[in-house]
Amino acid sequence: MKKNYTTFKLLKTEQNQYLRVASRHNAFTLAEVLITLAVIGIVAVLTIPSLVKNYNEKAWESGQKVFENRLLVATRQMNTEEKLAGYSSTMDFVNELKKYIKITRVCDNDNITKCFNKEVIWSADEEPVDMSKVTDASAFGLDWETDTVAVQFANGVNAVIAYNPNATQDPYNNQFAATSKSMAILYDLSGNKNPNTNGKDIKHINVEQLAGVSGCLIPELKDTMCITKIISPEEYGYLSYSACTEAKNKGEIDVDACYNGNDYFAGAVKACGGINNMPTESQLIDLAKYVYNTDSINGGTSTTYAPLDTEIAAQFLSASPFSGYFYVWSGQENSSNYAYIRYFFSNRTRWDNASRGSSNILAVCLDH
């Protein structure tokens, strides 16, 4: 019995020693913990800015849709009640607008920056715009003889508004484009917070430039068209037939018909805010002359064999799903199945038809 007890004790001792050794091997050392934390930190540094950027862009896109829809509802109601036209100043118009959409503060054109940011980055290549100088519609690039007024909406959006003294109204038309007929508005979705940058938290309707700064992506073309966005098909996406039809019936897109499938043309129209904000046939000729660096293109169907200047065309090529060439939607429909495009190959360009279901054509948006 004593021998068995001794054997059991030895086995127990060996087991405890084994567990202590195993415990030491399974534990993390301080160095291992620090290395793991360092790796996690590096991954966080690399990924968090991208996640924040994507979140902000989605938030701005959503905020723009909500705000512009609310503004459209308000001005359409004013149109229905015959309160949209006939004001001699922007202040008179804003005082009426307050009855249809909640505005918490109004600042006249001598005090713009009490309701709005002091500076706006309108174009990355130029100095920020001093908003205290945006005192009339000419600062928006418009020939309206009217003042500007800054307002703060109850939802946190700040804006500068210029009323169109030539505004019209049609009380019997519920689809009347009341917003575009009555005002120009520059608004900031993030209030006084940064980045205060055009195309990000700064959005606008009917604003062609800001205090002499065009904000066009390609200044060389601003006399014929002001390109504000070049959007990849992956980014603007498509509308299904039912979504296109619903948007068309609600007046959200101004297409004549919808494609019975994935309608990328309708998606481009929606992303640009309407067919009128997409290039015409003649504007695409001007674009072709620019990116091929030649004046030999003189017709919609003309072809050039001059090489595409990839440095000049870099903004288009970077958004294109292809390598070395790209296609651009025009704002011209052919039918429910086709719309017109211009293609830009390495050594030739041509005006042509494309299926509205094509998922490889850029949306180029203009600011008129």
Describe this structure in words.
The protein is an alpha+beta fold and 368 residues long. Strand 4 (148-153) and strand 5 (158-163) form a beta hairpin. The chain has helices at residues 2-26, 30-80, 90-97, 178-182, 233-236, 241-249, 264-272, 281-292, 314-319; strands at residues 103-107, 119-120, 129-130, 148-153, 158-163, 183-188, 202-205, 227-231, 326-333, 338-344, 349-355, 363-366. Helices cover 35% and strands 17% of the residues. The chain has two domains: 48-205, no CATH class; 219-366, no CATH class. Strands 1-4-5-6-7 form a five-stranded antiparallel beta sheet. The chain starts with a helix and ends with a strand.
Describe the secondary structure blueprint for this structure.
Blueprint: H1 2-26, H2 30-80, H3 90-97, E1 103-107, E2 119-120, E3 129-130, E4 148-153, E5 158-163, H4 178-182, E6 183-188, E7 202-205, E8 227-231, H5 233-236, H6 241-249, H7 264-272, H8 281-292, H9 314-319, E9 326-333, E10 338-344, E11 349-355, E12 363-366
Antiparallel strand pairs: 1-4, 2-3, 4-5, 5-6, 6-7, 8-12, 9-10, 10-11
